[in-house]
Design a protein that fits this description.
The structure holds 2 protein chains of 2 kinds. By secondary structure, chain A is mainly β. Chain A contains no helices and 12 strands. The relative contact order of chain A is 0.34. By secondary structure, chain B is an all-beta fold. Chain B is built from no helices and 11 strands. Chain B has strands at residues 5-7, 10-13, 19-24, 31-37, 43-50, 53-57, 65-68, 75-79, 88-95, 105-106, 110-114. Chain B is globular and about 40 Å long. Classes of the chains: A mainly beta, B mainly beta. The A-B interface holds A 32, 34, 36, 42-46, 49, 51, 89, 91, 93, 95, 98-108 and B 4, 31, 33, 35, 41-45, 48-50, 55-56, 58, 91, 93, 95, 99, 102-109.
Chain lengths: 115, 115
């Protein structure tokens, strides 16, 4: 079956530091890949997505590249801010498994950015 | 910007009681989902719903769970006889197209506490 593995948190960084959150996946078909962010007390928001190999998703300074050869979708940001403190979830949707294209999530990585 | 809404934000119930969690998906969306997140664990898929019927469900979604779209706007999750292990954050999500666009929009969640 499908699965997503994320690096464990929490990750604590100083403001303006470089961020990488690793994500690898296992899928039976041809997944679309997503990063969702959950700010404290809020729901899940789509941060970025990529639907095929070598696609790069980007939003708000965050980037992730769909690497089929390494089955990875690592999240990066060049300079984090305190406002980026949140939990980040990697997820996949496998369009060829039928049904409703459910999302399979990783465990989430908590990011804390300090001044 | 349209958004998914959920009520209540927090529900406390006693073991064995029935609960109904309510969601209003985005109005022109066709696919609806329920996910749950037990505290400190990953977000898990429960069920997807399309064209007034369940399109896929997980092994978590047993006979104690049911979903309904009673009118043109609401989407509900019912748990018939709650157990302690049903305590979790429940997220509703919706998606616009059947196939093609895989982006799911999430509500803020309902925290269910079973005592």
């Amino acid at each position: 079956g499908n699965s997503v593995t994320q690096m464990e948190g929490p990750v604590t960084l100083s403001e303006e530091a470089f961020l990488t959150i690793n994500c690898t996946y296992t899928a039976t078909g041809y997944p679309s890949l997503f990063w969702y962010v959950q700010y404290p007390g809020e729901g899940l928001q789509l941060l970025l997505k990529a639907t095929k190999a070598d696609d790069k998703g980007s939003n708000k300074g965050f980037e992730a590249t769909y690497r089929k050869e390494t089955t990875s979708f690592h999240l990066e940001k060049g300079s984090v801010q305190v406002s980026d403190s949140a939990v980040y979830f990697c997820a996949l949707s496998d369009r060829f498994t039928g049904g409703g294209n459910k999302l399979t999530f990783g465990t989430g990585t908590q990011l804390k950015v300090e001044l | 910007e349209p958004e998914v809404t959920q009520t209540p934000s927090h529900q406390v119930t006693q073991m064995g009681q029935e609960v109904i969690l309510r969601c209003v998906p985005i109005s022109n969306h066709l696919y609806f989902y329920w996910y749950r997140q037990i505290l400190g664990q990953k977000v898990e898929f429960l069920v997807s719903f399309y064209n007034n019927e369940i399109s896929e469900k997980s092994e978590i979604f047993d006979d104690q769970f049911s979903v309904e779209r009673p009118d043109g706007s609401n989407f509900t999750l019912k748990i018939r006889s709650t157990k302690l292990e049903d305590s979790a954050m429940y997220f509703c999500a919706s998606r616009r197209l059947a196939g093609g666009n895989y982006e799911q929009y999430f509500g803020p969640g309902t925290r269910l506490t079973v005592t």
